[in-house]
Design brief:
The complex is a heterotetramer, with one copy of chain A, one copy of chain B and two copies of chain C. Chain B is α/β, with parallel strands linked by helices. Helix content of chain B is 41%, strand content 22%. In chain B, helix 3 links the parallel strand 4 and strand 5. In chain B, helix 4 runs parallel beside helix 5. Classes of the chains: A alpha/beta, B alpha/beta, C mainly alpha. Chains in contact: A-C, A-D, B-C, B-D, C-D. Chains C, D: Keywords: Cell membrane, Membrane, Transmembrane, Transmembrane helix.
Amino acid sequence: MDNYIVELENVCKKFPGVKALDHVSFKLKSGEVLALLGENGAGKSTLMKILSGVYTRDQGIMKIFGEAIDDMNPVKAQELGIAIIHQELNMCDHLTVAQNIFLGREVTKKGVLSEKEMNDEGGKILKGLNMNIDPETIVGDLSVSKQQMVEIAKALSTKAKILIMDEPTSALTSKEIGDLFTIIKRLKNEGHGIVYISHRLEELQYIVDRVMILRDGQYITSMDYKDTSLREIISYMVGREITEKFPRIDKNVKEKILEVKNLNAGKMVRDINFSLYEGEIVGIAGLMGAGRTETTRALFGANPMESGEIIIDGVEVKINKPIDAIKSGIVLVPEDRKKDGLCTKLSIRDNIALPNLDIIANKLGIVNRKKEEEMTTSSVENLDIRLANTEIDADSLSGGNQQKVVVGKWLVRNSRVVIFDEPTRGIDVASKVEIYNLMNELKSQGIGVLFVSSEMPEILGISDRILVMADGRITKELDIKEATQDIILEYATKFDRKIKEGMEA
Amino acid sequence: SSDTGTSNQGSEGGNYKVYLITMDQMDQHWVTVDGGAKKAAEELGNVDYTWLAPDVKDDAKQIESINNAIAGGADAILLAANGPTAVTSALREAEAEGVKIVYVDSPADFPAVQTLATDNEAAGKIAGIEMLEALKGKSVTSGKIGIVNVNASTASTVAREKGFRSAFEGTVFEILETQYGDGDAARSKDIAANYITEGVVGIFGGNEGSTVGTGNAIKEAGGEVIGVGFDKSDTILQLIKEGHLLATMSQNPDVMGYEGVKTAVKVLEGNTIDKDYVDTGVSVIKKDSL
Amino acid sequence: MENKKIPSKLRRLFSKRGMGQVVTVTIGLLVLIIVFGILNPNFFSNRNISNLLRQIAPIILIGIGQSYVLITGNIDLSIGSVVGMSCMISATLMTKGMNPWLAVGVTYISALAIGLLNGQLISKAKLPAFIATLGTMTIARGIAQIVNNNYNTDSIGPGAEGFRNFFYYGKTFGLYNTIWIALALWMVFNFLLSRTRTGRHIYAVGSNIHAAHLSGVSISSTITKAYLVSSVCSATVGLVMTAISGMGTMDAGTTYELYAVAASVIGGVSTLGGQGILLGTIIGASIWGVLQNGLQFAGAPVAIRNIVIGIIVIISVLLDIVVRANKNKAKKVKVKA
Amino acid sequence: MENKKIPSKLRRLFSKRGMGQVVTVTIGLLVLIIVFGILNPNFFSNRNISNLLRQIAPIILIGIGQSYVLITGNIDLSIGSVVGMSCMISATLMTKGMNPWLAVGVTYISALAIGLLNGQLISKAKLPAFIATLGTMTIARGIAQIVNNNYNTDSIGPGAEGFRNFFYYGKTFGLYNTIWIALALWMVFNFLLSRTRTGRHIYAVGSNIHAAHLSGVSISSTITKAYLVSSVCSATVGLVMTAISGMGTMDAGTTYELYAVAASVIGGVSTLGGQGILLGTIIGASIWGVLQNGLQFAGAPVAIRNIVIGIIVIISVLLDIVVRANKNKAKKVKVKA
Ligand SMILES: Nc1ncnc2c1ncn2[C@@H]1O[C@H](COP(=O)(O)OP(=O)(O)OP(=O)(O)O)[C@@H](O)[C@H]1O
Ligand SMILES: Nc1ncnc2c1ncn2[C@@H]1O[C@H](COP(=O)(O)OP(=O)(O)OP(=O)(O)O)[C@@H](O)[C@H]1O
Ligand SMILES: [Mg+2]
Ligand SMILES: [Mg+2]
């Protein structure tokens, strides 16, 4: 029992209004992969940030390699051999890949930076990750998934014995996830201790030895992975049984609401054609960078459209700006809620009212506060958003509740088409089910739902029809009955084939 | 210590409240006016004297100061008007309150008890004549002449420039576009140096900072160019002594302050003032007069 | 949950970001007033009060403009130059014999052109606000200088007495007109900011420009509107300057943009956008004005005045930060109990 | 991939963000020089060239300081006041009879104190840079005024001739010392920024302060160092001012902070942080200086100069934005092909 490399006992951490951690104890052995699981806001990231010195604990004992540590900070954590890949990207966009990898630990000779050494070393680490990136590339020019890989490379380069990965795969492609898992296994065999946080429970089977579960800032249980089941894990996380992971209701398709013809917008949106009917959920599947987000943005008027027709209820509409889309009944729940979805410094009321001011303001633009209050209250109640009152700032909510606000602001108006872009990314199982129920609710109201997701199971579980995208094009349209993971993957990778063809030609 | 700001003399009751309002608080010139006024107040013993000054030369701010003085219960105001027109309405309000007005340094277009000032235009002309004569002495009868001034909005320095230019009427000297250095000695030096590069035979500085800049540029270039300027400061006198500046027009700011307070108190005591304009004079300071 | 009893209106008012700061600085303002009142018995005289209010009015005006722009997450460095430009344009036209009210119209139009340029450069051409308005600051000052051929204007003459009384010298119900003008504009722009769509959009853009865009807010028109408001305020102050002096002065308004930032920030408007209320701007402007007036009366030299004002700007923002941190701590304790 | 042939050093240089802007404005500078050369035959005279270089030197210096601060994502509004304060402190001490070189030392220490205060207020007390340095700007100006009791100083006297020659009037290898000083500081600070850990951290903090913090970069010491560099540059300019005039002037350096922003930004330093190189700052400062000098020779009134400079600031940043957009388009096309 002496080979614990991390021991935390009775750790407490309070944030304004929230007890993020309540006497939590945590242990990690060398040579194991421990999955830290829990709903949104359970305190997983907070616990790991305390371990890595980002936050200071209010109370509790911390031992690293058996040695008690009083006050921790990021530098000390690094020196002690703790490396963390944070849930959010933490890259300096203006610096190169190598400069980012070695940030804070630059190699110098007599005080002068040795760029060559860092580039060479960085190149080696990237190669070890099976990544073909020039270490001198500016990070801001890389795609998000590549940036995430650089982040991983950076953590690995510290040669830390304790490695924390907070949702590392939420922005990775499946090939990259595969590469990451290979590395995790290798590191484990080399005796590293790894903490792995993810909401994608399907991943656990490939790498995890032990799981530990938090709920509402409290330690619930921990067990060996082989002795448990996903069902059991989920019930511990949620505190109750989740009967149906993908609740499905029958579709009742009536009129065609939306028709998109030959939509083009930049290199990632080419010749998009599809239709959407009342009361159905259409999933858009594809790999990272397939152009799904850009398609939804073009449809919504957030990105400029080059050509194409958008027809709603049989009438062509011109969409140049989001407001045009909103007016014609198309709304978008964007994928990055912090960046695109919420005004975090404003109140919940302000956020919900923002796109609906046309409804609650009179012709002169004067806001009717009573209507506003009613709208906010009904939205909060309908979606069961948990908050003290509607005047608190949006950024004081947990991730899941923030997501509900982003959805909620659209549901108070009578939209025809609701587009969800990765609505469940970074959201816990229970909240996910709530969001599925929400989509079903819309579906039953006769609204057309477009649903972009990178998670195959939920695409298959919720959609009535699936569009597969690759390289900015729709490569296949599948009815749910004929769809399988393999078929979707086949069409989602059509673009690789095209490159091959191109190279052979 | 706030000795540059205010000084209250004598007992509380029955003292006359006299305010000095200058254009700003920066120039040594104003400090000297204040010094003269303070001295008079001390001698008289029945004056509550305060120097109010805006932080920068600005009409609106000067008017604020006037309003503040009225609100403060002024019996008399000694004013150096930033511009002749701008302050007139404020002065009308002051007059309506029975406040006596005495101009020092620069009058406004509004009747007052007395003006103690230099005729800036005339003084500028004297500066021009000094330069012209020095040039003649070197048998220079044509060439370019540069002017370094503060800005185009301060009436007194604009008047000096006008007078300076008028001295050259009828000659073939070419007076270049005026350049403004905000009275900043370093910026003025750059401007003067550029003039010298351009091949000017003389440079005129419109105030203390402009003159210091001009003197330093000439000093560096080696003394071929004739420099004349305005105001008396230690640095300017030094430059004259070393022969880099020909002359500076020195006003007598201490006299303005001193006599100004005396006049104000005289009229407050019910006496009549016979002269409504006192030329406090300008002395031409040259190397041989030091 | 314990908040349930508080009426929603009050709750809304006090949960507004920046409200804490407004309360804090209001107390600060009262303290200042009391101190200066003790130092100088004249301070509370009728005359000084109305005089003081008239001095504060222009700062309130430029503060309103700057607050609008700051709330969108931008800054307007051109304020002082637009004041100068408006002063020179109006005065020049009047000296050329144009009807004063027509000249006022032309002045507002010219100022609005600068506001429009600012808004378009920033929202359409995506220039950082600091750069765009640094450019227009220099340009507008250049226009102020060139409009009367590099000279301050002559007197705008007796024909403009009505204009001068309207903007500065006249009184209505015992208060100087300048004060009424500032109050009127404050009420209009406060209503616009707190009760209308445009106002909401201004906060949303300052809080998160992307989220606002995706909520159907037109970024460019919102930012442009904020700059137009700023121009209207600056032009009004420029006209007040013309009325004060009865002439056009080229360097009128120099550094007013910084006073405007100071008034806004002291009053709780964040330079980072999305936060602040115009009530705070009034308090901030008052603190600024009371300090200037009080320190001048106290006979403090300009140097001391500068140092005191610098320290107050820093402390008032520090206070805000400290108060917010304490509020959070207090909350924590409550939760624990 | 086709880039593989270009030597990596060159590639690295040109891939630096901001390099494109440097190339563009260098061309602009050459055009300006040619135009002014044609307009005025004196422009290329030996005398004017060395004079011009000396006029540019202080702008390069304050530009370096401002660039450092801008790259960390902050701004330093106190530059001009620190110039004034340094000028007054050094001159006052010399007139009081202190050895000039000792006075220089005291001046640097006082300026560094302001830099330290700026750095701490911003990085420790978390004040927005605009506010903190607006405060210290006012305070430093107040100190400049109070240090000699609200007077400009007397002449620093003949005992300080050595000092004056060192900082301004003397020549070394045919070039004025001011130019050498600017070059020397540029070389030191350019090296520091591009080749040392501190420099790397400065970029990192400006690019993503959060990421830098998590990587173990000390935010407060990095930001403070940038402000200290700025103070050293401003103090040097203040000493140059004292040397120029041979006296202390209280309002020396007024609005220099904005010139410094203009020089930096024209040279490709982003006000949003993380981006820019000091080579650009030299070019930016040169454009600024050449314009001031050339327009005077061309006999342009100040008004025109203001307008031209305002337009150039806006256009140079617009250019950068347009060039970058085009580069991206070109990239996209490449990928597609
Ligand atoms: N910096 C912060 N300030 C205030 N509250 C915070 C802060 N960070 C976290 N919290 C709160 O602490 C609680 C735990 O958050 P934490 O981020 O640790 O959850 P998590 O388990 O990582 O959730 P997720 O799965 O959504 O990432 C939440 O209620 C959250 O709102
Ligand atoms: N603002 C932008 N500037 C430049 N490139 C961008 C921008 N936004 C997206 N891209 C690129 O466009 C491509 C499409 O990305 P996008 O995220 O829209 O695709 P997606 O299929 O929605 O993927 P995801 O699963 O990440 O949502 C990616 O290669 C991305 O790097
Ligand atoms: Mg988390
Ligand atoms: Mg996407």
